[in-house]
Write a structure and sequence with these properties.
With 123 residues, this protein is mainly β. It is built from no helices and 11 strands. The strands form 2 sheets. Strands 2, 4, 5, 6, 9, 10 and 11 form a 7-stranded mixed sheet that branches. Strands 1-3-8-7 form a 4-stranded antiparallel sheet, with no helix packed on it. Strand 4 and strand 5 form a beta hairpin.
């Protein structure tokens, strides 16, 4: 039902910052919990952050805690991922995911996904 489109990826030097955006359509955005998941070639997808439908609760993987911030603007049907102090190991395709109801930490629980945006961090 809901369609998701990511943007904001690119090339950045280690220590730099990027802000990813994900805009939703064809759904009631404020009913969906949202997550950001990343996947590098040959590796499993790794959930990095999640946020509840109202934006009150947020969760982060240990690898990004203190560096990444997830937020949402329900009036704009958009979820963001602010990434600071980027490291080369953050290089991956970042996907925006959605699910109805409660926020869940496992990526398999999100059943709607965007096409992804590439983030490349140089050393």
């Amino acid at each position: 039902q809901v369609q998701l489109v990511e943007s904001g990826g690119g090339l950045v030097q280690a220590g730099g910052s990027l802000r990813l955006s994900c805009t939703a359509s064809r759904g009631t955005f404020n009913r969906y919990a949202m997550a950001w998941v990343r996947q590098a070639p040959g590796k499993e997808r790794d959930i990095v952050a999640a946020i509840s439908s109202g934006g009150i609760s947020t969760y982060y993987s240990d690898s990004v805690k203190g560096r990444f911030t997830i937020s949402r603007d329900n009036a704009k049907n958009t979820v963001y991922l602010q990434m600071n102090s980027l490291k080369p190991e953050d290089t991956a395709v970042y996907y925006c995911g959605a699910r109805l109801g409660l926020v869940i930490l496992g990526s398999a629980s999100y059943n709607y996904w965007g096409q992804g945006t590439q983030v490349t961090v140089s050393s």
